[in-house]
Amino acid sequence: MADTDSFFDRLDPEMCVVTAAVGEERAGCLVGFSAQCSMRPLRYVVWLSKVNRTYRVARDADRLAVHLLTRDQHELARLFGGETGDEVDKFTRARWRPGPGGEIVLEDAAAWFVGTVRTRVDGGDHVGFVVEPEHAGGREDGRPLLRLRDALDISPGHPVD
Hints:
By secondary structure, the chain is mainly beta. The protein is built from 3 helices and 9 strands.
């Protein structure tokens, strides 16, 4: 296998929280793999680990909500990244409201969008959910966004291994 550390160790992507709801079931997790993937139509892909409860809920969801956090929202990131929905109801410890189609929108997010899942792509241990944004909100206050290096101290609620 190629030594890819010199490439991947330099990446420091923004982290986001993805939430999904199907009926009474709701889930959310901290995501480190995501990116805009199309300009026309505007689309964004979020990669969810197959071992996460959020993936299990999201695979049946028509719509997802994607949220950006700021560096000073580390505790919210820890809640969604370090706890598992298999054991904890994260939404009793976070401020949220129903989105336009019943999705879960985190009220304290720096920015968010809700969109329709257009396709799913199997990428190995993660599945990419390609989402077409339809509703969005947030605030521009100049605070830096939470990045991967800011979240390295969060032990995953569901380790990949």
